[in-house]
């Protein structure tokens, strides 16, 4: 998973790629006499964790191709990182329509990929920190960004069900949202037919 990096790490990556390309291995000694020992370890740790460099051997690294890094910044990662979440949540609104309709309705593209999530008010700091740790832009109640972002909707109580590893608002509430807007009629009809057949 490739994530954004701070400016000082971007400069280090630029230095490594300019000197070695993506085929030639290099070690942490590349930054000797440039930054402190602790800063050197931090830079390599961030670049490795963020997917910009990879291990070539126990003590050497290689740069990931820049085109792969750039494309990776816009890959969908939120469904995968939600497996690491330790607090309750429920995908809601257009996100719950996507999930319950098996993605016959899709609200996302590489340019704009929103997720709408209800979270408990008391957990708001946890969720901000959680998404910030993965460099996923996040907002409270409304917001927008290029690529993936999460809109957190703080609530006092949550009602969620597990649908294939993701917690989502119950089908009944999702159907109501879809039924009330003609734009989602295809997804509504799909869900109505699928789940009527499943309960028959």
Profile the largest sheet: 4 strands, mixed
CA distance, first residue to last residue: 41 Å
Q: What general form does the structure show?
A: elongated
Q: In percent, how much strand structure appears in the residues?
A: 15-25%
Strand neighbour order, sheet with most strands: 3-4-6-5
The succession of helices and strands, N to C, reads HHEEHHEHEHEEEEHH
Approximately how much helix is present in the residues?
40-55%
Helical element count? 8
Q: Could you tell me the radius of gyration in angstroms?
A: 21 Å
Overall residue-averaged pLDDT value? 91
> Helix/strand-derived class?
alpha/beta
Regions with little confidence, pLDDT below 50 for 5+ residues: none
Secondary structure tally: strands = 8
Question: Could you describe the 3D structure shown?
Answer:
This protein is α/β, with parallel strands linked by helices and 200 residues long. The protein is built from eight helices and eight strands; from the N terminus they run ααββααβαβαββββαα. Strands 3-4-6-5 form a four-stranded mixed sheet. A two-stranded antiparallel ribbon has the order 1-2. It has a two-stranded antiparallel sheet with strand order 7-8. α1 (7-20) crosses α2 (37-49) and α5 (93-100) crosses α7 (171-179). The longest helix has 15 residues, at 185-199. It is elongated. It starts with 6 loop residues before the first helix and ends with a helix. The relative contact order is 0.12. The mean pLDDT is 91.
